[in-house]
Design goal:
This is Carrier domain-containing protein. It comes from Cochliobolus heterostrophus (strain C5 / ATCC 48332 / race O) (Southern corn leaf blight fungus). The structure is a single chain. By secondary structure, the chain is an alpha/beta fold. Helices cover 35% and strands 23% of the residues. It has 6 domains: 168 residues, Rossmann fold (3-Layer(aba) Sandwich); 54 residues, Luciferase, domain 3 (Roll), CATH 2.30.38.10; 100 residues, 2-Layer Sandwich (GMP Synthetase, Chain A, domain 3), CATH 3.30.300; 73 residues, Non-ribosomal Peptide Synthetase Peptidyl Carrier Protein, Chain A (Orthogonal Bundle); 171 residues, Chloramphenicol Acetyltransferase; 246 residues, 2-Layer Sandwich (Chloramphenicol Acetyltransferase), CATH 3.30.559.30. It is built from 32 helices and 42 strands. Strand 7 and strand 8 form a beta hairpin.
Length: 1032
Amino acid sequence: MVGAVTTDLRRTDIENREPLLKTSVLDLFDEHAERSPNSIAAEFQGQTVTYNQLHNASIRVALELRKRGFRPRDRIPLITTMSLEMLASVLGILRLGASYCPIDFNAWSLERVIATLEAVGSRLVLSTVETTISGYELVRMPELSRHIDSVAEEGVEALKFIRGDMRQSDLIYIIFTSGTTGRPKGVMVPHSSAVHLVQQNFSGAMRGSPGEKVLLFFSVAFDGCAGVIFSTICHGGTIAMAQPSDVINTASSCSTLILTPSMLASLEPTPEFDRVHSIYMGGEAPNETLVRIWTSPTRKVYNCYGPTECTTAVSTVEMIPGGPIVLGHLISEVEIVLLDENLEHEVPQGEICIRGPCLAVGYLNMEALTQKKFFFRDGVRHYRTGDLARRDEEGLHFVARVDRIVKNRGFLINLEAEVEPALRSFSGVQKAAAFLLQKQLVAFVTPSEVPVDILREYLVRKFDVFIVPDLIFAINDFTLTPNGKVDTRALQAMVKDQVNNRLLSYPRTENDASTALDVVLQAFAVIFDRPVSQIPSTASFRSLGGHSLTAVKLQSHLRRENFSLALSKIFELDTAAAIARAAVSADRFASADVSSSITTSLTPHQLQLLEETEIDPSSNYVFYSLTRNTANSPVNTENLRKAWEIIFTRHAIYRTRFDMDTKAQTVHTAADVYWREFSAVDYENMETVSRREREALWTTLRSQKSSTSILKPNFWIVDVPGEAIQMNWLVHHSYTDAWSFGILLEELELIINGNAATLPPAPSYDVVAQYLNGEAKRQARVITDFWSTYAEPWKELRPVQLLEPRVPSDQPWNRWESDIPLKMDSLITSARQHGVSLATVVYTAWALVLADYTDSNTVGMKISVSGRNIDHPAVERVVGSLNGRCPLIFQTRKDSTIGATLRSLQSTLLRVNDYQWTYPQLKSYVKQTFGNEAYWFDSQILVLLDMPVDTSKWRIFEVQKPTAPIELNFIQREDTFNMRLRYDGTRYAQNDMDGMGKRFIDRLIQLVGSPLDGRMADLGNMTQTEDALLTN
């Protein structure tokens, strides 16, 4: 048996008395496929499918499913992502008379996927992605293009017979949401409810009519996705599918947007969205600001309300700027009543209960919960939402959630249904209670003998990171209220006492470690935004979310308090107590204030940058373009110019001149910057002007005979008055690095908003340069010894083994880009399980790719680091070039565990990072030892996760020349990732880079998905199928 309901058309007498389904969403779709076969039904990433093609594809999918053993009324799990194949699979399942159970391959953890499959009860699974799940047979849905041709009549008659026997109560889909036992709960929605929703025709109803393009940006496993699909294709519209990487371009091409308020808030109502005439918000309470900025004479904004159990939406209302936020117009035959806590009497403010044809059948395999949530009152079936609302003359106003659902780290979680069951699943825990206190998730467990540290490790290993409490306390037993419930207030009062007891229990020693501990605890409190009373001495730097940026902040805080500790030690020691014990007293640094004119030697990093530019005059420049909407904004050319004048004066690096003859830099009294201003009539003209100036500057750079005159920082501002402003900046890396850019943006925002008085002190770069040059002399022998030892494996390094392209590209630098089907939470969980940083996991994946492509277990790459790990108190806020290119050499071993490999690479990284600021000495040593033709790194990787760049309201575009033949950029896109490979088109072919990029994605996913005790050999080599997938 494939499904858990039935596998043929035989019914009981009771089932045969169920009314037939007169009209289904498939019927409505088929009508448009017949009426307008060549109309576009959906588009995704440049591909389109017509109504006729989608119709044919769905029939082929249905027939293939029937051939594989699926039957009408089966529950069919669908593992999928945003794709045209997802759409054909959904319709194919429905055409078979079965229901689909969507599983988001990109977003769900493996534990959630397996729990869902177990609940559905089918060992056969339809999948549009390449994956395997132990114990389940996956039916692979290939590319849609193989299914869009005309279909044979064979088998179609059987599908028509199936359609004729469908009943109103037959399920259309099962959507899984957070469950009451910590397991996902499946909401079973019947065909009758879905078709009732899409047939609504009141003013403001969601209907994607012919000629309309509707955005689909929801998770495929969210009921909103089903709502968008059916409300569009049932009316002849076009679905525009989007991913985080292309949502702006896709959304701006649509006529209708259906989004949560949080999604909409990530967009700006620029002129490119002028074709959008309707916006529907749902899933969260809307805010007035969004309504105001998105409403226009040609655009309406609507608020929708409806739980999954009530088929996506039961009400819609047009929002008026400044008007009340209410639930609005109900769909036909649906009613909302507000009932008291006993569900007996209607009250002005109470729990929202819904009745009508929108209701779900109930929860899959959860009869008790179904009876609790779906109840009869006066002979009529209702659903209790768990939401509070009040009714007045303006309508229904949403008030709050009734149950214990809170937001932790951006995710809605159920304390009773998710967190507490997770705690109780640990052996030895008898009782558990959880609550949110001062933005922290706090948990108590009994009895007091429970090993809290081991419990935390278990939770991190087994559950999503947002389920794991920030603080866990073990006590003998819970205090109860008179009603017999856990006294949460009493537990909250105990939190401070528990933390204070831990602080008092810290052993104070004669070497003044207690003072160091106070400093470390204060630093933890500031960095992680928590009261110092809630930071125990056992607090873990990594578990609190520590990474390279926070490590720099911690090191700077220690140095300001006259303590010294290498950055690598912070990750190694981890706990506050251990860090405090290792911190040593250090002399106070001299003040960072300097005279108006001072000369000091160039740092090794500056010197290298400038020498490279002497050889190639266009190298080591970076171009930034920052665009901002200025409607109702104080930003204009005048206050931008004044803001930058303040910034240039504050930061000595912009008053500095470089002298390559003396290898020195001199700070002058005034900044030396080119500044120009232009006006434009519209966005297109603005881009034209900016591009013209940029190309002229690049031409100037390329035509220079030498770099004896490094171009000064060059600004040109292009203003479209009252609409937008673009700030363009071409600057040499000797003036600015990525970390500095984040500082400058932060200061710029403060100044243009009238908060210049709150700017922190600006350390002078030359003071840090003096320190670095002094350290280079003081540690000369140590530095030389380090690099000579570090370079011992050099002879084992091999270049990437790829043939030169048959036809070299006419472009010097080409690009391959892809989204990565990996969630941030999955990467965080994997990194924390192995006790390493996020970047370490990424570097290891690239190391494995290099091993594949060099046929050597010893691999080398350049990585870009902050350069902020030097032991100087000014390093966190100084603006100037410290961003070092760090050489990472690593030896992979198949006989090692994955965890040991990750930790070994991180150890190597931390060790070399302590000396990365003297990186030019490695280059010199290699040439002297191995000759001028010795191998040098042919790839550089930039992991852009920890840089302190708050883009604020600016849309940023950046261009610079790569420093290696292959450059990999690993970029966070909200809760997922994107990768870009930039490569020398004269040396590498596009197909080879395509294969290399896919290989990296595969290796990264393998690492993240590996078990804790997994071995490197388990990752294995690419199978023939995988190899074909990665290289075709």
